[in-house]
Amino acid sequence: MEISSKENAHFFSNNTILPVDRSSFKSESSASKEKQSCCGGIKIFLGALSFVYFAKALSGSYLKSTITQIERRFDIPSSLVGVIDGSFEIGNLLIIILVSYFGAKLHRPRIIGAGCLIMSAGTFLIAMPQFFMGRYRYERFPSTINSTVSMSPCLQDKSETPLSALEKSHAKINAGCEKEAGSSMWIYVLLGNLLRGIGETPIQPLGITYIDDYAIEENAALYIGCVQTVAIIGPIFGFLLGSLCAKLYVDIGFVDLDSITITHKDAQWVGAWWLGYLIAGAISVLAGIPFWFLPKHLPKPESRKNSSTSSEQSKFITEDNKEQHKSYQQQVKFAEMAKGKSFKPLEFLSSLLNFLPSLKNLFGNPVYILYLCASIIQFNSLIGMVTYKPKYIEQQYGQSSSKTNFVIGLINIPAVAFGIFSGGLIMKKFRINVLGAAKLSLGSSFFGYLLLLSLFAMGCENSEVAGLTVSYHGTKQTTDYEQALFSECNSGCLCSKNDWDPICGENGVTYISACLAGCQASNGSGKNTVFFNCSCVGTLESPSQSSSAVVGPCQKGNECPKMFLYFLVVSVITSYTLSVGGTPGYILLLRCIKPHLKSFALGIYTLAIRVLAGIPAPVYFGVAIDTTCLKWGSKRCGGRGSCRLYDSSALRYVYLGLTLVLGTVSIFFSVAVLWVLRKRSSPQEETLSAKGERGICGTKSRKDNFVNSDHLIQTTYWPEKETRL
């Protein structure tokens, strides 16, 4: 506090003309007002940026929570859902370079406000297919629908089925084919997510660099941690909103809910996925309003006016003053051209020719290139894991979409928020340097993935589904699944292998349909339908006795709820451990780059993460998960639809195995980063301790060189300071 007050007094004493007897009082008053203005302005921007992060995180996490709903509603496989999810990164990619080079020269708050409007438009577009598609149709045998006609599920002869019922069924199928043949409405979801990515692009780089430019250096890490922590509240509300909407039927307000014969626990259930996007879009509009009234510039802190680089950067960055001066001149030319001042084609061409040397200089930094590789691989691991975590919980532990989203939003996400905030707090409290940040980031990754390894032992066995996981005689299924669906007990029935209308026999085994269970009669309607004289249900224990079954699949084994509880505990600890290294890793990235290359370096970093992690990870994770499918649905007009049932064991090994392998590879690159930093820092620290004053003077002289070019620094800003959520 004493140093700060002295600097402020010195600054204002050089810029005021007052009587001698009042100069001290006036200087202190001006310094106090300057400090309050700076702190107040940056805190207002910090609050507005935090709300924007909340809004974009809410809409992004809500998309994750509706992955299974979209998959069922549009009847598409997981790999295609991965493409839809990756379209957000494609939208980011389209304009990220433009934002990196020229965004910081313009009015940054207003660009962020415009991005919020574009983001909200994309969110609204995602919800639009609901209002143009037909009503959702799920597979159900006619006797389970409210009707006065009672039919036998096992159609031994088509004459048993009333003619009016057959005609009505065929008419509905034909009408559905005509409607589906001319529509692929999931494309609107993809385009809307693409638009969301475009709108979100300026928020991260311009928002974080605005804070970094006008915040006190020692508070930068804490402010970044605060923004990231508040942003985590967005996913909490996003998943809770997904939980609420998943309980509401997709066509709520358009159909009579009493006529719906399935519940939110059914595998064919689709919730009101579109409703949350309307809410998220409205929040994005509100979040962008404050930025239209914020100033383009704020007063810089006194500690930032005398130096363009931190003391930590001087330990790891050495550069020639001539090269530095030339680079700053190039930055000034870009700034002037962006502002429309004296555009000269030759100067612009000269600036473009400087691109390749800058790229060569950047990739010659071993710390940067190794950290970039580690981040790319780790983000592949984390993005794939987070995208399909709701699906994994639903399929592995037999939980509904509503409960899955509720658990993730209320338990996992707060652990991530606490971990990120803890990382920033540790950095500030213990004044951890670059080397310490690398150690903390590596340690959190190592112990996080080590905990993830234990999840392999916390899975559930496959549900007993006749013809898929077990035979009709109770033995484990080893033959071809499609051929095994038919047995002697249902050989006299005219059943389709493409149907998925599961029923639960009183023997605890699930049957794909009442027809394949050999049921001869039914009683009741809708959710209360009971099937009798099911010849296949009685074959497991007493083949001579026929049994009954009810609508819906059977619950998983008795051990599964206990395993789900263990999974939640380990998952929370793992989420916290991995998140602790988020802020230290981000600070490491900022401090290992030369100041005049920082904007370009962070632009390349973000570009690489988007292209090599954000886009491909959901796709190949989805392709790998599709290989574990046991039963595919069929579209009304033919063709493969979405998966109805997964092999639990195979899904566990594919999902967790792929995540763990990628995480392990990223740890090796993080170790290499730490080794290079140790190699670079040790000789300099030894020099400082041995030479004392000489080493300090060397550092001071480098700072003086930056101060001498202060008129160049003040004309440009360093954009693209990507946050690491």
From TrEMBL:
Residue stretches making up the Major facilitator superfamily (MFS) profile domain: 45-681
Species the sequence originates in: Nycticryphes semicollaris
Listed PANTHER family: ORGANIC ANION TRANSPORTER (PTHR11388), SOLUTE CARRIER ORGANIC ANION TRANSPORTER FAMILY MEMBER 1C1 (PTHR11388:SF99)
Gene: Slco1c1_1
Family recorded in the similarity comment: Belongs to the organo anion transporter (TC 2.A.60) family.
Biological process annotations from GO: monoatomic ion transport; sodium-independent organic anion transport
NCBIfam families the record matches: oat
Biased composition (Polar residues): 306-316
Catalysis performed (reactions): 3,3',5'-triiodo-L-thyronine(out) = 3,3',5'-triiodo-L-thyronine(in); L-thyroxine sulfate(out) = L-thyroxine sulfate(in); L-thyroxine(out) = L-thyroxine(in)
The name this protein goes by in its record: Solute carrier organic anion transporter family member
GO molecular function, one term: bile acid transmembrane transporter activity
Residue ranges annotated for the Kazal-like domain, each copy included: 483-538
A single Gene Ontology CC term: basolateral plasma membrane
InterPro entries per record: Kazal_dom, Kazal_dom_sf, MFS_dom, MFS_trans_sf, OATP
CDD domains to which the protein is assigned, alphabetical: MFS_SLCO1C_OATP1C
Transmembrane segments: 40-59, 80-104, 110-132, 220-250, 270-294, 368-386, 406-426, 438-458, 563-590, 602-625, 654-677
Membrane topology: Multi-pass membrane protein
Compartment(s) of residence: Cell membrane
UniProtKB keywords: Cell membrane, Disulfide bond, Glycoprotein, Ion transport, Lipid transport, Membrane, Transmembrane, Transmembrane helix, Transport
Region (Disordered): 300-324
